Amino acid sequence: MFEVSEKPRRVERAFLVSVVRHKEEEARAVSLLKELKELVENLGIEVMGSILARVRKTYPKFLLGKGKVQEILELAQAAECDVIVFDNELTPGQQRNWEKECKGAVIDRHEVIIDVFADRAQTREAVLQVELARLEYSLPRLRRAWTHLGRQRGGGVTQRGEGEAQLELDQRMLRDKIASTKRELVQVIRQRTLSRKRRRRVPVPTASIVGYTNAGKSTLLNKLTGSDIYVADKLFATLDPTSRKMNLPSGRSLVLTDTVGFVRNLPHRLVDAFKATLEEALVADFLIHVVDLSSGEAVEQMETTLEVLKELGIVEKKIVTVFNKVDLVNDEIERASARFKDPDAIFVSATTSEGLEALAIVFEGILKEGVVEREYLVPHDRYDLVARLRRAGSIRREEPNEAGVFLLASPVDALIPVMEAFRSKHGS
Q: What global pTM score does this model have?
């Protein structure tokens, strides 16, 4: 039977292919090919070579014409590659045709990203999301697996008949598995939603860290909170949102949430499958948009992130733009250009800690926006409220007296109704 839940790693050397029809698309194609190289290398596969295949038109059988197909096969064979990876999406039929022709594995960007997600999944929800994406991707490709099986057995008429019957059975089982995975995923997401509601009942302001892959989001979270969240110089290093508490200079607390990085040409099936992973950004009080200033494509990466945020309907939130990795950029022109894109942006290095104090001050300012200071007299038996205000508000003055504790404070929205009962009669 065709297994899709766990895919054995069989390949070690890859040859990359990007098909381009128009000259004006070449620069972008080169950039995407570079990104694909990093994705493939993240899977532990060595990239031996690549080609930018320029064509006037595409063909249904191989996507490319026979001459270009032969050229790619010869290049891949000369480099002793055991897998050919297309940056373009292949149809199931094209994938089968290529594998028949080269007698080896042929995959596309879609499958690579699924494998990267699978390698990075660290919680039950992420595992289910990856599995669902792989199952849905695999369903129209089951025939490809049985083609391999038929070739291994010799492919007689009787065997092909058995294969067709088994194929129908596998398709039915796969559809059942997709349905059950969706049901379980609903339960897991519901549980996460309840956990989020419990956390929101503790009125601590929240901010979600968003941005392009490899922008340094996890490193920034690590530095700001002192946590040991998984950090690696890899695309999609964090699949699951990870929340940590940051203590601000004023003594207030802020919950920071890391999210999965965005990437160009992410298949829509994967956007939907992993949308729940990004939903933490929906409930955050504001967003921290981290951009890799050292990347030659910082502007395009910014636009990619903002486009995804727009799709999720969260671009109306306050966004703090953070240009990271300034320690790798000495060109003042690059900094000036970035400043032009967002005059209020903060320049930092999560590695060297440069600019992090200024960033914390910006966070303080955001939390104070629209907050009104009020006077409260909190009785001794409700000292728990004083502690909550310290964590999730701003206390400018605190004076114990016989009646309790006099406070001049600005509580966050969630605490205002609770504190109303203790407004000082002499206060504003």
A: 0.64
